Amino acid sequence: MSHAAVTQDDIRETEGLIRPYIRQTPIVRMAGADVGVGADSLVLKLEFLQHAGSFKPRGAFTHMLGRDVPAAGVVAASGGNHGAAVAYAAMKLGIRARIFVPTVAAAAKIEQIRSYGAELTVTGDRYADALAVSERCIEETGALAIHAFDHVATLKGQGTVGLELDRQATDIDTLLVAVGGGGLIGGIAAWYRDRIKLVGVEPCAAPTLTRALAHGGPIDAEAGGIAADSLAPRRVGQLVYPLAAQYVAQTILVDDAAIVQAQRTLWRALRVVTEPGGAAAFAALESGAYVPGPTERVGVLLCGANTNAVDFVHRRAA
């Protein structure tokens, strides 16, 4: 399928479809100096405030509201956030959901999936392993597959992040977006096209889009690092790739230390808790891996916050 199959009109229609079920997440404007980065004008999109703790419900609701769901319900494989989103959407719509996650999935995400009432199976070491098991389940049950990134419905849903940000911050020149399978950056690329500079940020240990762009198409990459539960699917999606190849200006790699430092800075400066994948885009800016021009107006998407790695979560009041 051509990337032209995902249009701005598709995304507008999708936004109307899912609007009753999702939050419009806020933005924060600040001087880069407020968080120790070299950008005069900085816009943070707080998409981690979305239901289920990440941008993923946008795609999950798009599937369930726009496709025929059989009596067998839905099945999804996930590093964690997509599974939580599918479980949440299924709970809200009264649909049976079975979720498959790898052992690398964060405890916070596993707890969240269970809290929404989905049937959960933990299997394999990485996302690709869980995906293989989920595909067997789909064959056996006839359930509807809800792919985490490589489906038109997913791209349309995630594209609503771009539509929403475009309304909130008409003045940004550049947007930094974390990349795993690429559903988020692909959907955003389908919305913005050439109107802004779109920069993909990946962990050094999971360079899926970087490898694909160098190769000329999706190809397996390493799937490790601190953000492996959200940004390490082994390869970027087939439907994502042409969007990224045409509209993503560049990709940047950040190491685990930079991601952890970004989490700390966001907490210190803004009292914002992000998971590693959710802080990766900011890490590119803070670490100096991406250096904006003197008057460049930079947007950063903070896309997920499903983590228990903060010292007050399990602390009892005195």
Give a description of the structure:
This protein folds into two domains: 3-55 and 151-302, Rossmann fold (3-Layer(aba) Sandwich); 57-145, Rossmann fold (3-Layer(aba) Sandwich). β3 (74-77), α3 and β4 form a beta-alpha-beta unit. 40% of the residues lie in helices and 16% in strands. It has helices spanning 8-18, 57-66, 81-93, 107-115, 127-141, 152-168, 183-192, 208-215, 240-247, 256-270, 276-286; strands at residues 27-30, 41-46, 74-77, 97-101, 119-122, 144-145, 174-178, 197-203, 248-254, 297-302. The protein has eleven helices and ten strands. It starts with 7 loop residues before the first helix and ends in a 16-residue tail after the last strand. It is α/β, with parallel strands linked by helices and 318 residues long. The strands form two sheets. A six-stranded mixed sheet has the order 1-2-10-7-8-9, sandwiched between helices.
